[in-house]
Structures are given as C-alpha cells and as structure tokens.
C-alpha cells in the first residue's frame, strides 16, 4: 500500500478527540489510492531501511507517523470548519416525500459525492482518468458484461446438471428468484411502518403473524369488559356430574401404591396461618383454601371492593357452601368406593369360576391316575403271588417281560414315575439268575442275548443314558447286568487261558452292543488285560511254538490302545531272540511281519535298524561277485527283506556293501579284452534283480549310470586302438 497519504495536509486528518493516536481504519481514500496505478510512491532512504521508525530525522523534515498524525501546535490560531446550513422543515418534508416515491433513479440524479472522490494529495491521478479498478460504478449496468461473452457460466451450469427455471442443488432445493428487497417508507426503525416481509418470503415461508394474533386476543379481552347491550342478566350455568363419570374417574386412579397409601395416612400440622391446623392426609391440604377463614370479617371474604361503594351480595354464606361441598365430596367418594367394591366382587366371581374349572380338571386327572395305579398294583401283586415257591403256576422270564411291556405301553406315566429299580430287583432278578444258572459263555456265547436286549429296552433309564452316568441305584438294567450277568463272566475269565483267545473274543463281540459301555471297559481293563500281560511275561520266542501274534492280534478290534503297554516287552523279547539270528533263517521274517502294522512306524524302523539291518549288512559283505560262477543265495536273503525294512535302509546297505565290489569286478573284467555282449547281459541281469522302487532311488540310478559310463569308455578306447 502506498504511503503517500502520510504527506497530506495535517489539517485534513486531525481529529480534535484523537490527539496523539494512530488511526488504522480503512477509508475511501485508502481504497482509491490502492487501486491507483499512477500514485506517487515514497522511496525509503538507506537510514530508514536500516532503522525503520527509529531512524533519525531533521526537525524541519520530520516525517509523520503511519497514521498520518502530527503533533498538535497549540500555539496556532483556531481554524473553524464550515458545517453548512440547516434545512428548514418544508425542505425536509419535501425530501421525505421524494424518498417515498418509487421512481427510477438515473445516473445523473446521483450526487457528486456518490462517485469516486478526487485525491487531495495533488496529482495522484491524471486528468484524463475517469475511473479505476475498485472504484464505485453505477449499479444500473450491473451484469451488462454478460452480453459481451459467449455465456460460459450458463454452459458450465448446464454441464453440471442445471435445468433453467429450476433451483440449484442436487434436489433443486435452491430458490429460483433472487432475494427481493423492500424499501422502508420513512426513516423510522425496523417494524415502525408495519411488516416488512416481501411477497416472495410470504410464499416461501407462510407463517401466521404474531402481531395479528396478539391484536385478536386483545380485542377479545376488551369485549369482555363491555356491557351487554341487551341489558339482560346472564343466567347461571350449572355443571352436573353423572354417576358414570364418577365411576370412570375412580377407575383411573383407584389403585394407590404402597408409599401413596402410607402418605395418605400421615398426620400433617399446618402452621402457615395464624392458627395451627391439623390434617390427617396430604390430600386435605389441597382443600384447605376452600374452607372459609373464621378470623376474617365477612366483607373480606367477598369480592374485592371497587372504587365506589360496592353492593353487598344478597346471598353469601361461605360456611354453608363449604359444608355442602364437603357433603358432595363425601358422596362422590362413597359412590367411587362402592363401584370399586362391586368391581372387586365381580372379579372375584370370575376368578373363583376359573379356579373351579382348574380344580375339576385336576380332580379328573387324579381319578385317572388312581385308577391306573390300582391296575398297576394288581399286576405287580399277581407277579409276586406267582413267584412264591408253592405256586402251581410259577412266573417265567418271558411272561414277566410281557407284563413289563404292558406297563410300559398302557401305563407309561406311572411306569416312568415308579421305582423301576426296586420292582426289577424284587421280580426280575430272581428269574434272571435262574435263567443263567447253567450258562457257559465260552461254549454258547449268544445264549441270552435276545432276552437281555428285550429287558434293556424295558429297564434302561433314557435320562441316565443321555447324561452318560453309571449310577446303579438309578438304572435297573445296569444293576441287573452288574449283579446277575457279571458274576458269570468273572467266573469264566478266571478259568480262561489267554492263548485260547477265540472263544472269549467271540463272546465279547456278541455282547458288546448289549451290555453298558462301562461294564465292557471293566471287563477289558480288570479281567482280560491282566491275563494277557501275565501271559506275555511268560512267553519265550525261542521255545514257544505258537507265535505271539496269534493270540494277541485278535484283541486289537476290542482293546486297541489298551494293548500299547504289551508292545514294549514283546519288542524286547524279540530283540534278545534275534541276537544269534542269521539272514538265512526265514522264520524271523514270519514272526516279525504281523507286527509291522501294529507297531508305530517310528518304533518299527528303530527295531529294524537295531536288529535286522546289521545282520543283512554282514550277509552282503560276505557276498562274492564272480561273473563266471556267481552264488546268489546271500543276495536273495537280503533282497527278501525289502518289504520289511525301509527303502532308504536297503539302499544304504547296497551302497556300502554291494556296489563298490560290483563296480570293481566290472572294471577288472573290461580291462582284459572281454566279450561286450556277455558284459551287457551280466549288467542287465543284475539290474533285473532289483525292484522298480529300488531302481527309482537316485543313489541306485547313479550307480548303474556310473557302470554304463565305464562300459562306454572301455568300448570307445578299444575302438580308438
């Protein structure tokens, strides 16, 4: 911004009330001078550029401050500024009338001061300049630039989806017409000449004017004070309450909560008046103003006196009115109370009727239950009578099963709620013991399976099964198996020889789906496994003619992981038996082969590497390779173990004990002018001795390729000679 205004005449910028104060307000002169490209600029001196406002100046050429102020010279004479003449009242009235007229304003009618003012610095503008950027122009030509363009603004709006005649925005919510301005009639404040809303605002925002409402309310209140022109007295209006209205009122607020009932009986002492008064509920406080005050004179209880002497009412008995109001209230309360009592009695009748229906249903159900229990009791007593020793028609197990089936089908509820355990113990257990008295499980393993399966469906507790329990006191079938069937099994297992395993395995396979799981686990863990463990300890692989897998492996489907503790002593005994074994003895393979899929892969491989692979290596080391007279027995003994030991172990044996000797023989044969056809047959013959799995191993491939290379080099060397 130019600093030329700092050098203007001090008298134009000095204010009498702003002594020694900087004025930073932006004036019209500041704006005009800023947009003046030909204004005079002040160039700073070197000292001013270095020290700024602290630069030293001569007293004669003292530069004014940024606000354009100079120190006052109070010794100078007083200069008066002309303020003009005051216009008369007639001229002001004419000006007001001219303001009210809505006539178009022309550019020539504007006062000269309305346009841009001339600068007072003298020579900032050229005489030929008529205006500059930022100056004030006539608003009559506003928007006239559009006629000189190609309408780029309109085109941009249409590209963005604007439709002419509609408002802006995504949903065309903008206003279509520009905001209108309404000229105020005079120079009064806002609202002094009535509503200033335009027609457009009334259409866009239709609201009821609060001033009109206030005027209507005022007229309505004013009309109440006017005297009726007819002069007739208004008849009193009476309001009546019917009994139905009182009942409806009582039903709305008939139920009080416990705290409200307690508050309704609280003793309240009112000391707000001149005398102490006692109320027996908070509800009475609301009616205390209805009671006329005895201490006040009669005139003070009547209507207030007007300016003139007021007439005394002809009939004014506040005590009588109070008593009548009390009687009315008591009557209303009594009506409400009677209505509530009547409603309560009706509800009680309905409730008792429903209770009667429920009791009738319960009574019928109890009668049916008693009848069914009587029939069940008769059947049970008949069973007990036929179980007596001196009975001519004793009860059999099949007949007892049919009786229990009848109880379960026809009297299921009674049968389910009854104590089946005690009933079965008293009736079924003696018959079951008699049924299995001559039974030998190892000879006839399927004996009794059908009858036990039938009793399982009759006696087993489904709820106990769903929870996986084994409570003998809650399940009759489990108790039956444990107390009647299990003793026969224990007796047979004690006499059973583990090496004769087939009868016992067949017996348990026949009963595995009938007996409870926990009883089967008890048989296998407590009876069978100890017998097997003791027999394994007594087994000697060198002297026993019966192989151990023949009486251990049949237990695998039933016992599975329970046999794991037996495998370690079996491997130990087999390892000790293989210490003096030679690969020429094929019996070792027959003994070990059944255990290959039983032992874990890791334990089986470790057993083979420790006990079999070293023996096979010694056998291969003793093998003599002679193309003219070859003995293949040792080689066959080793290759026969291919399925038993891993391929990697077998290849390791061949790399260490076979291929070095075989390649050495091949080289020596090729060095003595051999017959190449015989060498080729010899090479192919040895290669056919190995299986495809062994030949596919990379190490074996490399050895045979090495032999081919040796043969090719020998043939090429002989051809070169």
Summarize the structure.
The chain is 51% helix and 1% strand. The chain contains 31 helices and two strands. The protein starts with 9 loop residues before the first helix and ends with a helix.
Kindly describe this structure.
With 721 residues, this protein is mainly alpha-helical. Among the domains are: 326-391; 581-716. It is built from 31 helices and two strands. It has helices at residues 10-13, 28-34, 46-51, 89-100, 152-159, 199-204, 210-224, 243-252, 258-263, 298-301, 318-386, 397-410, 412-417, 420-435, 449-459, 462-466, 476-494, 501-511, 517-537, 549-552, 556-559, 564-577, 587-592, 601-611, 613-621, 633-639, 647-657, 659-670, 676-688, 692-695, 698-720, and strands spanning 268-270, 277-279. The chain has a two-stranded antiparallel ribbon with strand order 1-2. A hairpin with a 6-residue loop joins strand 1 and strand 2 (277-279). The two termini are 112 Å apart. Mean pLDDT is 75; it is low at 1-19, 59-69, 82-90, 98-140, 290-310 and 464-469.
Question: What are the SSEs and their pairings?
Answer:
Blueprint: H1 10-13, H2 28-34, H3 46-51, H4 89-100, H5 152-159, H6 199-204, H7 210-224, H8 243-252, H9 258-263, E1 268-270, E2 277-279, H10 298-301, H11 318-386, H12 397-410, H13 412-417, H14 420-435, H15 449-459, H16 462-466, H17 476-494, H18 501-511, H19 517-537, H20 549-552, H21 556-559, H22 564-577, H23 587-592, H24 601-611, H25 613-621, H26 633-639, H27 647-657, H28 659-670, H29 676-688, H30 692-695, H31 698-720
Antiparallel strand pairs: 1-2
Protein name: Tuftelin-interacting protein 11
Family: Belongs to the TFP11/STIP family.
Keywords: Biomineralization, mRNA processing, mRNA splicing, Nucleus, Spliceosome
